[in-house]
Design brief:
The protein has about 375 residues and is an alpha/beta fold. It has two domains: about 1-125 and about 225-275 and about 290-350, D-Maltodextrin-Binding Protein, domain 2, CATH 3.40.190.10; about 130-220, Periplasmic binding protein-like II (D-Maltodextrin-Binding Protein, domain 2, 3-Layer(aba) Sandwich). About 40% of the residues lie in helices and about 15% in strands. The chain contains 14 helices and twelve strands. A seven-stranded mixed sheet has the order 2-1-4-3-5-12-6, with helices on both faces. The protein has a five-stranded mixed sheet with strand order 9-8-10-7-11, with helices on both faces. The longest helix has 20 residues, at about 240-260. It is globular, with a radius of gyration of 19 Å.
């Protein structure tokens, strides 16, 4: 497994640093002290970028994907990232083949002409897993009170999209705040030290701040416009290795179902690698399990594209993108999607309200 360490951005900085901001430029791939470089040979492995939470991390820890891909002669390399923008750098230079991220990173990637494609979608939850936090004794009581305030945010993330829309709903112009573009770890330090007034953040960092610092939520992500999250790949990899992606998506979905049906076991599995307690993880699970929720993924359809386009227009409107983005340029053909997606996504049959899902595809 490769881990991302804090180092300066070395390649495509003139594009990514301008678009994504300081948060994404602070990390660079390393393995045993040596930098990862773009692959120039035929792939013998699928290199997966992941974050320390969720179904992909469960799949990594359980080792099921390795077992499924071994008969194809394919190894799995797992590369850890703090957030979607950090993953973009690796995808852009060809150091990662497949990953997942929120809605915003892909829009910024498209604005930078990075040849990534939308592979599949994970529909949004109820928004409770992201929020704007303030210290417990802060005089800030609502989003309207954020005018002129320093707000920590990882630029080009789904939570950045949430912040933009939360300000819109409160009729606070984005130009009226002082955004501080910080990766999650730096955001926590700034929040704890008081160098920012508020922090827009997501779980597990959200739950940790609530429990460790008694941080107070002034608004969460309920009701925001979002297409949810996405599984993403480079275009050449998606076209040349659809069978590998098909197996990977199937196993991610099974891991998602297992996590939903075995929340305590999933928390015990994830806690050591995430560096948080089982209790904190179970609090996150309780938050994200509210209401109806898809398990796994769904194909990219017209509604997903329409919603993602609306998010792109919001970022362009407030001046965070240098040009308009056409989301459709990041799509594959129908034939290419048919080659890499399993015939029926389990998640399409498993909009759960508490019952267990069956981890097999069917009509």
């Amino acid at each position: 497994m490769v881990t991302i360490n804090n180092m300066p951005l070395r390649l495509l900085a003139f594009i990514l640093l301008a678009l994504v901001g300081s948060g994404c430029g602070q990390q660079r791939l390393s393995a045993g002290g040596a930098s990862a470089s773009p692959a120039t040979e035929v792939h013998q492995a699928i290199r997966i970028g992941y974050q320390k939470s969720g179904a992909m991390d469960v799949l990594r820890l359980k080792g099921d994907l390795e077992k499924k891909l071994a008969p194809l002669g394919v190894e799995v390399e797992w590369i850890n990232f703090a957030a979607g923008p950090q993953t973009l750098e690796a995808l852009a230079v060809g150091s990662v083949d497949f990953s997942s991220m929120g809605d915003a990173p892909l829009i910024f990637a498209q604005a930078a002409n990075i040849p990534l494609v939308y592979v599949a979608n994970t529909p949004p939850g109820d928004g409770a897993s992201r929020a704007i936090l303030v210290p417990p004794d802060s005089k800030i009581r609502s989003v309207s009170d954020l005018k002129g305030k320093r707000i920590g945010i990882q630029k080009a993330t789904g939570t950045h999209n949430f912040l933009v829309q939360a300000l819109d709903r409160a009729e606070v112009p984005y130009s009226a705040i002082q955004p501080q573009y910080l990766a999650p770890a730096d955001g926590r330090v700034a929040f704890e030290s008081g160098t920012i007034d508020a922090w827009a953040i997501w779980d597990p960092y959200l739950a940790a701040a609530e429990q460790d610092m008694k941080a107070r939520v002034i608004v969460d992500g309920s009701g925001i416009v979002s297409a949810g999250g996405f599984y993403v790949s480079t275009r050449p990899f998606a076209v040349n290795h659809p069978d590998w992606i098909r197996v990977t998506l199937t196993e991610i979905e099974k891991a998602s179902i297992w996590s939903r049906d075995h929340p305590h076991e999933a928390a015990v599995l994830l806690a050591p690698t995430m560096g948080v307690s089982v209790d904190k993880l179970e609090a996150i699970q309780k938050r994200t399990r509210k209401g109806k929720r898809y398990i796994g993924y769904r194909p990219i359809d017209d509604e997903v594209v329409r919603t993602q386009q609306e998010v792109a227009e919001n970022f362009y409107r407030i001046g965070l993108l240098p040009k308009k983005v056409d989301v459709k340029t990041g799509l594959l053909t129908k034939e290419q999607y048919a080659a890499l997606l399993p015939p029926v996504a389990i998640g399409q049959k498993a909009v759960l309200t508490g019952e267990k899902a069956v981890a097999k595809a069917g009509p």
